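Sequence design from tokenized structure. All designs in this work follow the same two-part layout: the structure record, then the generated sequence. An example of the structure record is given first.
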């Protein structure tokens, strides 16, 4: 699909369907729905809700993993060709850059969309300090959406039983960090540690 030809959420969905696997497509639909549910569950209203006919949860859910199935070499190549910043962590584990590349591809598709949505897409993988409610909800939804096989209903209820969206994201983050360590994928990234520190100090979030 050529530049700026995605005008509606149906266009974006159609693009995604031809770009990623069926499993990733179903995951993305789940993230879109769950992001909306999480925002509603915690009564979050302080975020940019609509732009140009797009709703933030649906747009971010469908767009967040557009680049998730690109190879490491393709991700690095895209970043270099488009002048995107690559941290040392991204260079070591290029999959970490898929959020930023997804955000950029989304801009190629729809034009310049809200920067808060762009940032939510960029940080959805590892998190970072200073995330707004939309970014926190996307982060949570990515982990708990219904097609995630490792997630139990009991654990979902624990997350959604948090006192606010910050504690919910904090609990997810702590479990993600533990999970990454257990499977030996990678240690907590600087973004995850910054998010953890930020939520502890600014929001007073605790796991229990
Ligand atoms: Fe992702
Ligand atoms: Fe995802």
């Amino acid at each position: 699909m050529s530049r700026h030809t995605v005008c509606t959420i149906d266009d974006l969905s159609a693009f995604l369907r031809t770009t990623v696997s069926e499993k990733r497509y179903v995951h993305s639909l789940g993230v879109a729905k769950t992001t909306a549910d999480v925002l509603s569950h915690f009564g979050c209203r302080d975020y940019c809700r609509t732009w140009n006919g797009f709703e933030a949860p649906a747009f971010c859910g469908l767009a967040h993993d557009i680049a998730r199935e690109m190879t490491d070499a393709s991700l690095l190549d895209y970043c270099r060709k488009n002048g995107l910043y690559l941290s040392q962590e991204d260079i070591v584990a290029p999959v970490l850059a898929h959020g930023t590349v997804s955000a950029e591809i989304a801009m190629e598709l729809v034009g310049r969309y809200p920067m808060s949505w762009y940032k939510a897409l960029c940080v959805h993988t590892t998190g970072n300090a200073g995330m707004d409610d939309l970014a926190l909800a996307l982060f949570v939804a990515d982990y708990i959406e219904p097609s995630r096989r490792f997630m139990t209903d009991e654990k979902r209820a624990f997350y959604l039983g948090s006192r606010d969206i910050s504690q919910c994201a904090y609990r997810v983050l702590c479990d993600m960090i533990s999970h990454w360590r257990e499977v030996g994928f990678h240690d907590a990234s600087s973004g995850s540690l910054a998010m953890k520190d930020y939520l502890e100090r600014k929001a007073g979030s605790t796991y229990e």
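The two ends are 47 Å apart (CA to CA). We note this feature because it recurs in several other targets discussed in the main text.
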